[in-house]
């Protein structure tokens, strides 16, 4: 990974400041939500999203200033960005549509066009959801994972950054153990995708549009947070919460577990194929 190589050459911070910054980011998000945005716009998804966005923005600005680094050190690339955007968008559509299609075909849910949404609220939600998902990947993969990888190697970085992401997400309404398993699994897969493509744009776009399509478009909860307005309304037909995901959304579905497990395995195999090709090329 280019960003890891850059950090190794430049030298990175010790573990303590890195972890303290991530902990500060978590506390900052909670404080901004509780004492700023909740009082300004009420207890709703907009206040939650704004607290995520502002805390991530403050953290990234501080890190960039403190480390005196360019965007390359956060996993951005100057090459193949259009391919990265297409890959991230394609993965988001394929994954959400695939999981939802299985739920529809198996008669576990129904989708109907919503008739009580406000277009202005939809536009605001789309913008906020896209920014939030994008920034979250930069924080946990572009910042945390790359710096851990420069210090301890990629696999340690993947596990530790995914554990931090899991702890961070536990502030959301968790309804089952499967929610926790899926959070960790999805984080692992996102890390592998980042490693494979070597471009943070892929997973930033993937994460952003996964949330946007599943939440603002289709009407599922986003990581346990209810979406106030959506283009479609989803209704549970069966009581099989393990399939539907319950109040956590499709991220809490066993179907999502299977999908991301398969995707992770394919990406892992792809990484090995790239390694073998590189070895064969150097012979």
Automatic annotation (TrEMBL):
- Report TM segments: 12-37, 43-63, 83-105, 117-135, 155-174, 180-197, 204-222, 253-273
* Domain of life where this protein originates: Bacteria
For the keyword Membrane, the answer is: yes
GO biological process: any one?
A: CAAX-box protein maturation
Domain annotation CAAX prenyl protease 2/Lysostaphin resistance protein A-like: ranges: 120-213
Kindly list the GO molecular function terms attached to this UniProt entry: endopeptidase activity
Q: Which of UniProt's keywords are assigned here?
A: Hydrolase, Membrane, Protease, Transmembrane, Transmembrane helix
Give the protein's recorded name.
CAAX amino terminal protease family protein
Query: From which source organism is this entry?
Result: Gemella haemolysans ATCC 10379
């Amino acid at each position: 990974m280019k960003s890891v190589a850059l950090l190794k050459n430049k030298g990175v911070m010790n573990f303590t400041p890195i972890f303290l910054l991530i902990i500060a980011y978590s506390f900052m998000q909670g404080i901004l939500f509780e004492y700023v945005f909740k009082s300004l716009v009420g207890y709703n998804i907009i206040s939650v999203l704004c607290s995520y966005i502002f805390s991530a923005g403050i953290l990234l600005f501080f890190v960039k200033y403190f480390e005196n680094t360019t965007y390359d050190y956060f996993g951005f690339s100057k090459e193949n960005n259009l391919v990265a955007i297409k890959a991230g968008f394609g993965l988001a559509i394929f994954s959400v549509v695939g999981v939802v299609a299985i739920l529809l075909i198996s008669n576990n849910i129904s989708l109907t066009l919503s008739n009580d949404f406000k277009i202005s609220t939809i536009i605001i939600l789309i913008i906020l959801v896209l920014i939030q998902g994008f920034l979250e990947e930069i924080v946990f993969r572009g910042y945390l994972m790359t710096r851990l990888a420069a210090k301890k190697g990629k696999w340690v970085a993947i596990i530790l950054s995914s554990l931090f992401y899991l702890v961070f997400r536990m502030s959301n309404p968790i309804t089952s153990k499967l929610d926790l398993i899926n959070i960790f699994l999805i984080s692992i897969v996102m890390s592998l995708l980042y490693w494979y493509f070597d471009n943070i744009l892929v997973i930033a776009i993937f994460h952003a549009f996964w949330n946007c399509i599943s939440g603002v478009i289709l009407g599922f909860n986003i990581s346990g947070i209810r979406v106030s307005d959506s283009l479609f309304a989803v209704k549970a037909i069966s009581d099989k919460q393990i399939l539907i995901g319950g109040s956590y959304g499709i991220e809490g579905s066993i179907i999502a577990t299977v999908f991301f497990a398969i995707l992770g395995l394919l990406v892992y195999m792809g990484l090995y194929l790239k390694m073998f090709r590189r070895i064969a090329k150097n012979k």
